[in-house]
Specification:
Number of strands: 8
Number of domains: 2
Transmembrane segments: 27-47
Shape: rod-shaped
Largest sheet: 3 strands, antiparallel
Structural class: alpha+beta
Strand content: 35-45%
Order of helices and strands: EEHHEEEEEHE
Number of helices: 3
Strand order of the largest sheet: 3-4-7
Protein name: DUF3426 domain-containing protein
CATH topology of the largest domain: Immunoglobulin-like
CATH architecture of the largest domain: Sandwich
Distance between the termini: 64 Å
Keywords: Membrane, Transmembrane, Transmembrane helix
Length: 150
């Protein structure tokens, strides 16, 4: 028969039949709200982040010849509630039949605050499009960006 270890009280010598090593309710009532406060930034970053495509709108898009290349100029307006940084503008080019020709992207270095406007320029150094500027259909869109969670 295996020996069963018995615990005794060091002060009075009485045998201890049950031992509880858990925290009481008052400790749990303190730690659970504290843990929720710790997860609040994570919840805010996950569920309440903005959508760069919905917040930023591109207007006043023009194209012009620039030496051996082409420049696309435009204006971005932030219609959302978030401040956007490192916004990526993408210019796609299609021929008259709708076939894809080329695309160029440019990352804006400045931040765009809510309600603010920012001019952008995408420079294309491709001689293939230079010859087709009259027949080329251009689509300019927002491809990405970062929003600060706080």
């Amino acid at each position: 028969m295996p020996a069963i270890a018995k615990m005794t009280c060091s002060n009075c010598g009485a045998e201890i039949s049950t031992m509880n090593m858990s925290w009481g309710r008052k400790y749990w009532l303190f730690t659970i709200p504290l843990m929720l406060l710790g997860f609040l930034p994570l919840i805010k970053m996950t569920f309440f982040k903005g959508d760069v495509v919905k917040d930023l709108k591109i207007t006043e898009v023009t194209k012009r010849q620039a030496g051996s290349g082409l420049e696309v100029l435009g204006l971005i307006t932030n219609e959302g509630k978030h401040k956007w940084s490192s916004v990526v503008v993408e210019a796609e080019f299609f021929d008259a039949s709708g076939a894809f020709l080329d695309e160029w992207t440019e990352t804006l270095r400045s931040d765009i605050a809510p309600g603010a406007q920012e001019h952008f320029k995408v420079t294309l150094r491709n001689a293939d499009l230079k010859d087709q500027t009259g027949d080329v259909k251009m689509v300019v869109k927002i491809a990405g960006g970062y929003s600060a969670p706080f």
